[in-house]
């Protein structure tokens, strides 16, 4: 086991670039959807379990991909990220540390730690990152590690987990929370169970596509996994094959593009996703708002608006309900809908950092506890705003594109963390959008 030296990570979270948008034109056209950020992040962790090289295709071209590549390299993996391929040669004997600074940048830190623990029998990891829109607990991840036989202790900087000499053991764990089954803890438990000797059971598992795609990845590589009424059963394996696997299309980016087009009075044709790839709860809400989705005869999904947008009442929830990661964009869309919309947030009680930003554009939005009320339609005007999380930034972009006149949006780090080509795709759809790098010599990057 050897420590790997990395160049110190750059201070990438400081991003002084901004986007200039002149809104007010309908956006329409055909664009591809990237590989799903959140599915990819869990597959990067799962790839550490393999005993031969893994190639993930359609890996999204985002900051989180680069951060995970660095975290894997720090454990001793060889990782190449080029042209949408994420090639991993997993270490036989990983260095049992999730890099402290890098681990604080992504949400899947504990999932990555679980993969290292499963292989090395011990791991130290920092508190996870991701967006800090409200407290994001990890008690179910820790419960899974403890159930798998690890002693887990916290110190100021993070946690350390250590198993006995035989490594992880088979276990039963419940990953339910007051907010629904934990997506991340389900994958953490699945990765631990995949390397344990014997049969494990995860009760009340999440069934988000991040979970089912990671399960498909593992089962195609020889791990026996199935869901039934009791939960998710995993029969551990001491050999896990490598090989190729494609990251599914990003349902959140797809939903964002559909809503962006609709907010401006346009429509999109999206490649690399099918209508079935949109969660049912989201399709129900879009349909109620007056937006249809259908599989296109030549592949992909087409959106169409059925008359003026209509207000809706909806609440987020675990898959297949309305995804929390689409609620900020939906709030922006509903500023253009006729009537009063009510959006409840059930997964994260206070995920509403976008509301103040939308008000800067003239939106009529009020927040009461976990419910956001939006009155529309409102003629939005341009604004200068700063986004503070990954989905808030796209909500503000939607408002800017639907508004009359120029806007500027800062906080592009959050956009780059989750979207590889969203701005150039918007330009392809007809948006007047310019990225201005930070500093005095700023110049346009995307323009139409
Ligand atoms: C990288 C990634 O895939 N992130 C997604 C993942 O986050 P993440 O995996 O963090 O979300 P979880 O499903 O674990 O969390 C859902 C809820 O359960 C709570 N909880 C979670 C774990 C735990 O041990 N205890 C606990 O109480 C959380 O605070 C939250 O209120 O799922 C979220 C919900 O679909 C999405 O918004 C995120 O985009
Ligand atoms: C909140 C999100 O990401 P993360 O969990 O990486 O913060 C998201 O993808 O909407």
From TrEMBL:
Q: Which UniProt keywords apply?
A: Cell cycle, Cell division, Cell shape, Cell wall biogenesis/degradation, Cytoplasm, Peptidoglycan synthesis, Transferase
Localization in the cell? Cytoplasm
Where in the sequence is the signal peptide annotated?
A: none
**Zinc: present as a keyword of the record?**
no
The EC number(s) this enzyme carries:
2.5.1.7
GO MF entries: UDP-N-acetylglucosamine 1-carboxyvinyltransferase activity
Q: Which reaction does it catalyse?
A: phosphoenolpyruvate + UDP-N-acetyl-alpha-D-glucosamine = UDP-N-acetyl-3-O-(1-carboxyvinyl)-alpha-D-glucosamine + phosphate
Q: In which pathway does it act?
A: Cell wall biogenesis; peptidoglycan biosynthesis
Q: What is its main location?
A: cytoplasm
Cellular component GO terms held in the UniProt record: cytoplasm
Q: Which residues form the Enolpyruvate transferase domain?
A: 21-424
Biological role stated in the UniProt entry: Cell wall formation. Adds enolpyruvyl to UDP-N-acetylglucosamine.
* Family stated for the protein in its record: Belongs to the EPSP synthase family. MurA subfamily.
Q: Which PANTHER family match?
A: UDP-N-ACETYLGLUCOSAMINE 1-CARBOXYVINYLTRANSFERASE
What this protein is called in its record is UDP-N-acetylglucosamine 1-carboxyvinyltransferase
Annotated organism of origin: Actinacidiphila guanduensis
